[in-house]
Amino acid sequence: MDHKSTSNPNRKGLFGRSGFRYVQTFLLFFGITAALFVRANVGIAVVAITDVNSVDTYEWTFDEKQLILSTFYWGYIVTQIPGGYAAQKLGSKVVLLLSILISSLLSLLTPVSIVYGGWKAYCVIRILQGLFQGVMLPSIYDHLAKWSPKEERNLQGTLALSGYSCGLVFGMGISGVIAASTMKWPGIFYMSGAIGILWSILWVTFGASSPSTSRFITEKEKKFIESSQKEDNQHSVERKQSIPWRKIFTSPPFLALLFVSCCQSFGTFITSVEIPLYFDAILKLDIENNALFSSLSQVFTWGMSYVFLVIAQYIMKQEILSLTALRKSYNLIAFVVPMLVFISLGFLDSNNTAIAVTLIIVIAGISASHEIAYWLNIVDLSPNYTAILFSIANVAATLVDLISPLVVGFIISEQEDSRERWQIVFGISAIIVPVGGMIFLFFGKTDTQPWNSTPKNDNDLEIS
Fold first, then answer.
1. Is the pLDDT of residue 235 over 70?
2. How far is CA 116 from each of CA 106, 112, 113, 120, 288, rounded to the nearest angstrom?
């Protein structure tokens, strides 16, 4: 539970006079890392569990593997909007704790579930993990909206959300190392679960839903954050304020953001979740090299997220571009380069392994621009309803994640070693990703929308 701050103006604070908001940023980073380790280890885990060259493995068909990859999103999509609503009403601390702690405990139960229930039991575990992780990102965006002064939004947001790439490094790279060790594939689930529990302990101790409920923040830092948010008209709406649903769903800037997030989600799914299968079937990589190259792309993404951040900070500080122009420029990079890479990948096979791996690393690095390009745009449009907007956007993107493995499974079927079939998958990606980018270029905005502070007597269709 959060506690009202009782700090006095002269208290220095446990983390210095002005640094506790970055403790929150680190906790978000660590939490996302832990959650993504649990979520993203499935690609390598499935390869390891079905590796014919290892002992204690299982024979699962390609369609069963694709079903396992998709089931997380069956649960994930259900709790998106309730998660955003819960974060807004209950605060992000409780919601995030339940999300990551329970999904981590489920990870610890996965090996015994597979032993006794096979791939079907694994699917059930993945559905449950999706249900609990569905509330995570809406809560994180709500947390960022409350803890980030407007001038630090890109910085804090990118630092926190870079945990996504770090978690994928663990999920793909560390998972491969664990699977190749004496711990075998069960160790993947034990390690990911343990890290999530460690984060939960830190979060209970230091996490806070807002500056006003933190026990450790100084009065000086709290006033700085709150004054910045007042200037940006943030959180001026009471918690019992009705949500202007109709205005949200008829807002062109938000609909543009919604569309680009869906299109980019398809491309991201292909380059993260499906890539281990592509490495295995087409590039003929063994489990260790598969994990190494899969994680290397995510290491590059992680590093590039800081490169894009530094560039964005410089551009904004020097006033070279407006925030709108910055986001649209990053968005342009985020769809042009992947389009070219997807087209190229369709013509490569095991004779071009080095080129294929390099291209996948490039596209992964470019994906690091997504946070600044459009995801943080959610906070721009409506700081008051950040959790709700993110929930809606992530529901739409999750629908894409849910359908994507089924589409890939339909195209590939039992011909997973067919380059021509994978060429179709990459070709579809090369069409979908730029379409979303173009829509955002034309209709995306960074202005706070009028409905961000809709008065209570507004005649809109609203649900409290």
1. no
2. 15, 6, 5, 10, 27
145, 379 Cβ separation under 8 angstroms:
yes
User: Bigger pLDDT: 293 or 33?
Assistant: 33
Burial class (CB in 10 A: 0-12, 13-18, 19+), 338: buried
Specify which residues 463 forms β-bridges with.
243
Q: What is the pLDDT of residues 364-400, one digit of tens each?
A: 888 888 878 877 888 889 888 887 888 888 888 888 8
- 214-225: pLDDT as tens digits: 988 888 888 888
What is the spatial distance between Cα 47 and Cα 176, in angstroms, rounded to a whole number? Answer: 9
User: Could you tell me the pLDDT band of residue 316, with boundaries at 50, 70 and 90?
Assistant: confident
| Alpha helices, H only, 8-91 | 20-40, 42-49, 62-76, 80-90
Helix pair 42-49, 20-40: axis angle to 10 deg? 30
> Alpha helices, DSSP H only, in 148-251?
153-161, 163-169, 175-180, 186-206, 219-231, 245-249
Query: ∠ CA 399-137-323 to the nearest 5 degrees?
Result: 95
CA distances from 378 to 66, 92, 253, 291, 449 (A): 31, 17, 10, 33, 11
User: Amino acid identity of 124?
Assistant: V
The contacts of residue 286 (CB under 8 Å, 6+ apart) are: none
Contact status, residue 113 vs residue 164, Cβ threshold 8 Å: no
- CA-nearest of 433, 429, 319 to 373 is 433
**Closest to 349 in 3D by CA, of 411, 434, 283, 406:** 283
Say if CB 97 and CB 209 are below 8 A apart.
Answer: no
pLDDT above 90 for 206: yes
Residue 431 has pLDDT above 90, yes or no: yes
Model confidence over 338-370: pLDDT tens digits?
899 999 988 888 888 889 889 988 888 888 888
d(C-alpha 437, C-alpha 454), whole Å: 30
Question: End-to-end CA distance of the chain, in Å?
Answer: 24
What is 285-298 written as a DSSP string?
--HHHHHHHHHHHH
